[in-house]
Amino acid sequence: MTNINTSPSKIQSSQITAAKNNKITKEKASPREVEHQADAESIPNINISGRALMLSRLFNQNNENTEIPVETNTTDSAITGSKSIVHWLTNEDRTTLEKAYEYANANGIDLRYVDDLASDMAMYRYTKSVTRGDIYDLEGHKVTFDFTDADRNIADRIKNSAAANETRIDRRFLEWVLDSSKPNHAVKFEFLELMVHELPANEAKSNTYSGEDFKSYIGGPNEIVTRVSTEVNTYYTSFKPDYVSINGVGRWLTDSKDGGTEKEQNTTINNLLKQQETQAMTLLQYLISENQNNKHTKT
Question: What is the DSSP letter of 80?
Fold first, then answer.
């Protein structure tokens, strides 16, 4: 997953502090009335723009006028660098996420759901030029992945909906994230379905959703189904190393090039270890002897 800042924005924190410091209490109000008034005023209705939320949570920037260049370099040097993958989000992606953060904030949705959507969108931009080949285990069995039945039902529902052709979310990204052959997605499909319907490209839809289903964040990896074929591809089992080390203990797996057997090679290794141990003990004895000689010399 990506370096996504899920902490509340500093803008929001400062506004909450200001709201708390500007509480107005009625004269001669009862203690219970003052308590209820304080509770209501301690949670003010703060209007923060979607752009401010997007910049703060994804790029750790609190200046709404900040312009962050879109990274387009996909060379090895860029991929192995320290730059977060959110820099690969296009300007269109960032505008979409601004709308998503604004919608979530207005409807009481935990903003971490939008963070997860941003993570998947950034991963799509970051890796879309990479073609992944087939995966095999150490025994040559082909390994494939799939959605759970629940995720597959939602994915099919999204792909077949009229909203999928009208949403501002990139259709190519939807095809990528809804591809069951690579089911490692961060966003919950239930939330993705909501965004597909609630973020139309024409801005004509009114926000009527209550946000109840996503007020509390349920994180963690999404479940996937792993399948292993019964057939064996011998190409992936033909290579065997001559020597392996397990927990620091090395051994030869095949006959050596000079004709020695595995047993002989193991004997040779053991002899070398014993020789090193003997040399270490000899060095230790020498140091002890020198130390004693130095003491006698000083006296």
Answer: T
Name residues of the chain where pLDDT drops below 50: 1-29, 34-45, 77, 256-265
C-alpha span between 171 and 184 (Å, rounded): 18
Is residue 2 assigned to a domain?
A: no
State if pTM tops 0.70: no
Q: Which amino acid is at 72?
A: T
Asked if residue 5 belongs to a domain, the reply is no
CA distance 239 to 53: 52
Among 234, 263, 278, the domain-final residue is: 234
**Dist. CA 11–CA 52, nearest whole Å:** 8
Same domain, yes or no: 55 and 203: yes
The domain boundary, picked from 210, 234, 258, lies at: 234
Please report the DSSP string for 180-207 in residue order: TTS---SS-HHHHHHHHHHSBTT-----
Q: Tell me the C-alpha distance between 40 and 60, whole Å.
A: 30
Domain identity same for 288 and 205: no
Peptide bond into 234 cis (omega under 30): no
Beta strands in 29-180 (DSSP E): 135-136, 141-147
